[in-house]
Amino acid sequence: MRLYDSLTREVREVVPVDGRTVKIYSCGPTVYRYIHIGNMRSFMLGDLIRRALRFEGHPVRWVMNITDVGHMTDEVTDSGRDKMELAEADEGLSAAEIAQKYTEAFLHDADLVGIQRADLYPRATEHIPEMIAIIQRLLERGHAYEVDGTVYYDVTTFPEYGKLSGNTLDQLRAGHRQEVATDPNKRHPEDFALWKKAGPNRLLKWPSPWGEGFPGWHIECSAMSMKHLGERFDIHTGGNDNKFPHHEDEIAQSEGAVGHPVVSIWVHGGFLQMGGQKMAKSARNITRVTDLAEQGIDPLAYRLLCFGTRYRSEMDFSWEALEGQNRRLTDLRRRMAEWSAAPRPERLSPAGTELDRRFREAVSDDLDMPQALVVVNETVGAAGLAPGERYALLASWDAVLGLDLERDVRERWEPGPEVLELVRRRDRARSAKDWTAADEIRSRLQAMDLEVMDTPEGTKVRPRR
Ligand SMILES: [Zn+2]
Fold first, then answer.
1. Distance from the CA of 403 to the center of ligand 1, in angstroms?
2. How far is the CA of 80 from the centre of ligand 1 (A)?
3. Domain layout of the chain by residue ranges
4. How far is the CA of 30 from the centre of ligand 1 (A)?
5. CB atoms closer than 10 angstroms to residue 39
6. Is the dihedral of CA 257, 260, 264, 269 positive or negative?
7. In this structure, which topology does domain 2-269 adopt according to CATH?
8. Which pLDDT tens digit goes with each residue over 345-367?
9. Radius of gyration over alpha carbons of the chain, in Å?
10. CATH 1.20.120 matches 274-412
C-alpha cells in the first residue's frame, strides 16, 4: 500500500512502525452543526485507507477525534469565539447537549455513506489533563511561554515550522506586515495559543496550572493521537484545509514535546466544490447526506461518485452526476442479483485473475479509485467471464468499495429446502431444550454464511452481510 505523504511530497510505502498494526488518526468533526457532504468526503478518506489496508491483510487501528471545545471562529489569529459556545447561544442547549446532538447526527450520516465505525472516537473535553501535560512538557523544553494565564507556543524555537504547509516564518511575516492587530502578549505574531485564560463570560473552562482556562484547538489532536496511538504512529489524515494552521501546529507541538517525528505519513484530501465554490456554510451551498436520501438518492451513490475523482484533487459536485451514479449503482446491484444464481467458480480464470490483480494494484497505488472503477466496469462487461466469477470478484472488492453491492441479493434471498429443514430441526431441538443439538445446527447454518437469529416466532436466517 502506497500513499502520498503531504510532508515529504512523495508517494511512500505504508510500513507499520510497530511491525504489525497500522495506526491511523483522522481529524474528526467539530460538533456544533451538521456535517455536509464536503466534510464527509474527507472522513471517507480515512475509512477508505482503513478498508484498503485491511483488504491487503493488515490489522488496522483507526482513531477519529470529536472536537467539542476549542475550535474558534478565527483560527489564524486565535482571536474570535469558540464555535461550541456560539452554537450554545443560538440553540438554547448546553454545550454538552449540542455536542451530543451533532455527534449522533455525524455518526448517522457517516453510516449512510458507508464509513465503518472507527475503533475509537475520543472527545476533546475528556482529554484536558493530557493536553495540560503536553503543554507542561513544552514549557519545560523551552517551546512555550506563559503570559497572564495564557500559554503560547514560541514558533521560533521550532526551526522546521512551516515544513508541512510551506507557510514558513519568513512567508508568514510578510503576510503579517499588512495585518493591523496582533495579540500584544505574543513574542512573535506567528506564535499560537496552547492554553487560553478564560474570560468572565466563558462557560467551557477548566482549572490548570495557569488558572482557569481552555485549550487551543490544535493541542487536542497532539494529545489524543499520542495517547491512543503512541508517540510514533503511521498515518494522519485530514482535509487540505487542516494543513495550516491545524496540522502545522500539531507537528510543532507533538515533535516539540517528544523530540522526534510522530507521524510517518500525512494524507490530505481535496475539497468538494459546488458551482466552482468550496462547500461551506458561508457560501450557502451546504448539502447534508440526509438531503440526498430525501431526493430519492442512495447515499452510497455519493460514495461511488467520489471514487470518480482522485482523493487529493478537488471535486466538483453536481446533482446530475450524482443521479447518474445512483442509476449505475442500482444497475450494479441488479446485475449482482442476477449473477448470484450462477455457480461460483472453484478458482478464478486467467482473465478473472488479471482483473483481480489490476483492481488490487489500483487500490494500493495511492488509492487510485478512478482506475479501480475502470476495472469494475470491465468486469461487468467482460466477454468470456462466467456470471458466477463476475459475482465473486465484485463481492470481494466490495470490502473496499463499501457500496453494498449484494443488497438486492440479500433482499431477494429465499431459503432453500436444506436450510428450511435445518431451521425446522433447530426449532424442534429448542422446544425440547436440547441446547447441544440447537447449537450444533446453528453452527451448520453459520457455516453456510447465514446469520442465525432467535425470535419469538423461532429461528430466522438471512445471508450474512
Ligand atoms: Zn486535528
1. 28
2. 19
3. 2-269, 274-412, 417-463
4. 10
5. 24
6. positive
7. Rossmann fold (3.40.50)
8. 899 999 999 999 999 999 999 99
9. 26
10. yes
